[in-house]
């Protein structure tokens, strides 16, 4: 069962129950009120007749004539009939024992009349009884005349009161049918309108579940459903971002595996090829020397690749302990090794800067410096210059490495941080490179809450700037 159908049913059932119950209570209360009014009016008439008879009792006591009494009863009855002019009212006066003094009753008396016998002094009894297709209200009182008890019966047809109740029920049924039909239609429209946004969300969720994460719920209401739709859209946006990140990571992982396999395959192919050649070829000193040189060079490439991979694994370890250190001091410690690398290529090395205190892992920071300077040296020509500078700008610590080498083309700048990516494969292979240096640098910088900015121009040079954000409490060494 759909939600709108549940809302529809659970709203209709209480309405129908309460509407019918309230209507029945109103009709019955109105009927009881009208009937009570008729009863009170009939009782008053009975008292009025009894009072009239009691007023003439002294005269009847003087005459003590049965004929005169009957004449008086007849006159009283006729006067009542003429005065009331109401055919629905009846009067019956009886002398004990069961002798009728006057009666204009035109219907057989039911058993209830017998039950109303012998009412006490100042007592009026009444009861209702169906007579044929009519409902008659019977009232009975008594008065003593000449030591005889006269029973006064005043009866009234209250059928119109019951007919009114039937008419009200008939009218209620007509109104009930119209009201219920109207309510059913309105509640169906309202239920569908209330649940329409939820259905739209369900359809959107179904589309999203099929992989279309760019879809959103178009809903602008300010109620709870609108807030739910807004949170739903935010959730989908987060899921979409996470999935995009996973897809990017997956692509990077696939590219990494592909490039890593390729980087392994090339030196291994050379090593296997020259090894096989040397095994089946007669000894020739020059050929053996060339083959061994190739094998040695390719083995060094494999060694370099293994070391770079170890660096990548190392910097991804968690729970690194950061200590407040001087970036300039770390650079000074690395200077001898950097100078030796530069001398091998006949590159001049210039180091400048002042104290820069910041939280760091010194081993990782050296890895960052070595890789940046190594890339700058490899990109420079002989007699070139590599400048290294550290300085502070407010709450930032900046490490700059600049060279005047071959530079990087603009179309390659967005990809230089990807593992195994190289813009000049021949030059990279010449120096046993694997395209992992900048990827390692980026990981180290990220761990130290830093970012890397690269500005380069072909045949002019490259400047790599690493910017570390330092919290205020870390700016001054203690």
Automatic annotation (TrEMBL):
Topology in membrane: Multi-pass membrane protein
Top-rank EC class of the record's enzyme: transferase
GO molecular function list: ATP binding; phosphorelay sensor kinase activity
Subcellular location(s) per record: Cell membrane
Annotated EC: 2.7.13.3
Transmembrane segments: 7-27
Cellular component, GO annotation: plasma membrane
Predominant subcellular localization, coarse grouping: membrane
Domain HAMP: 192-244
Swiss-Prot/TrEMBL catalytic activity: ATP + protein L-histidine = ADP + protein N-phospho-L-histidine
A Pfam family: HisKA
Residues in Histidine kinase domain copies: 259-472
Source organism, top-level taxon: Bacteria
Entry keywords, A to Z: ATP-binding, Cell membrane, Kinase, Membrane, Nucleotide-binding, Phosphoprotein, Transferase, Transmembrane, Transmembrane helix, Two-component regulatory system
InterPro entries registered for this protein in UniProt: HAMP_dom, HATPase_C_sf, HATPase_dom, His_kinase_dom, HisK_dim/P_dom, HisK_dim/P_sf, HssS/ArlS-like, Sig_transdc_His_kin-like_C
Name this protein carries in UniProt: histidine kinase
Native organism: Cohnella xylanilytica
